[in-house]
Design goal:
Nucleotidyltransferase, domain 5, 3-stranded antiparallel β-sheet, 1 helix
Length: about 60
């Protein structure tokens, strides 16, 4: 299973969780089975207020 956290800065597993998923500058994804940590830049930062699209943000 993979768990995704919105973050302000990429500091790996030590990243602070950002308070708004869709507006987070980046995400940290943790594979709980392998303990692999991956950072992803938010690809939907320039969305209109109320129009968050988490799948677009994480696409790819």
């Amino acid at each position: 299973m993979k768990v995704c956290f919105p973050t302000q800065n990429n500091e790996g597993i030590d990243s602070t969780v950002f308070n708004h998923f869709g507006s987070a500058p980046s995400f940290v994804v943790v594979n709980v089975a392998t303990k692999e940590v991956t950072a992803i830049n938010n690809k939907d930062l320039q969305h209109s207020h109320g129009a968050c699209n988490p799948l677009k943000a994480l696409s790819g």
